[in-house]
Amino acid sequence: MTDVRTAHTSELGDAELAAVRRLMDDAFDGEFTEDDWDHTVGGMHALVWEGGELIGHGSLVQRRLLHGGRALRTGYVEAVAVRADRRRQGVGSAVMEALERVLRRGAYELGALGAADEAVPLYAGRGWRLWRGPSSVLSPTGLRRTEEEDGCIYVLPMAAKVDLDGELACDWRPGDVW
């Protein structure tokens, strides 16, 4: 039996957090950094369990994205992963459904995420839209373009009116900024 649970990081026990970290390390072939882990925690998690094993995860953390002269309260999706033997079986969709339910409760004006190429069909199929405009980061030294991220950012517009061809900047953080 598959069980989907949503919980804030503060509600997860040590064993659950360790299971999430193991899944991330496995799913990202050992390239899930400490900065990536830091980006994963501090918000809401969607955990998919089957027979006591974690088979899917995603988290939603608050960030500020700058667009159209506004700092938008954004639910940013992080650390979406499905155990290798359970991919293409609806687990990723279950994770996203749980996170989108949190997004739509009114706490956020916008949903956003940085998509790996292989995940684009999942997100696009759920109504996430490609950000076509230029991306930047508000770094400690000022606004800096992030051209390498152009074409990888997806948004789920909610309360905020956005121009998908306009400029979008994220707040600063160590590691991958998007």
Rg computed from alpha carbons, rounded to a whole number of angstroms? 16 Å
What is the 3D form?
Answer: globular
The end-to-end distance, rounded to whole angstroms, is: 35 Å
**What proportion of the residues is helical, as a percent range?**
10-25%
Oligomeric form: single chain
Class from secondary-structure proportions: alpha+beta
Proportion of beta-strand residues = 35-45%
Helix/strand order, N-terminal first: EHHEEEHEHEEEEE
Mean pLDDT: 97
Reported for the largest beta sheet, the result is: 10 strands, mixed
Number of helices: 4
Question: What's the arrangement of secondary structure elements?
Answer:
Layout: E1 2-8, H1 14-27, H2 34-40, E2 44-50, E3 53-67, E4 70-82, H3 91-103, E5 110-114, H4 120-125, E6 129-130, E7 135-139, E8 142-145, E9 153-157, E10 168-171
Parallel strand pairs: 4-5, 7-10
Antiparallel strand pairs: 1-2, 2-3, 3-4, 3-10, 5-9, 6-9, 7-8
